[in-house]
Design brief:
The protein contains 6 helices and no strands. It is mainly α. The longest helix is centred in the C-terminal third of the chain and has 26 residues. The radius of gyration is 16 Å and the shape is globular.
Length: 146
Amino acid sequence: MTDKPTYVSIPIADLMCVDMPSAEVLTEEGAIHENDISVFFNTLQASVGVWTDLVARITPCPEGWADSRHQFIALMRDVMEEAISNDDPEEAWPLRQRLALMVNQFDGMMDDMARPFTGPDNIRDFYHNLASRVRATFENICGESL
């Protein structure tokens, strides 16, 4: 007996949080406006929650694996907000270095989230745009690219 593939209805609109009042902050392009950073990351948390729930329905996942993603996003938000508001050279430089590493990790996370989707392209583009927005915001904070 061969195992049949598991098919799960993929709620593309849910993954992209299109029904949330703040959904546009995820789909806009370019750097995140300073006033929208908290809203962006909170809405991103909701999107990641839908994604992790979907993955958990498809395949067994280790306990706590979704929590680590949510904790990372919350930490990245906090570090980004601190990097924006802190211009003390002794504190800002290590903070920006830490944020640079986090941005690279976030790129990988978004690639991982996009990978299972062979179509439609808009869901893959959605995740890659999130990474692009976070990177553009970091570059604005630092005035440079990675």
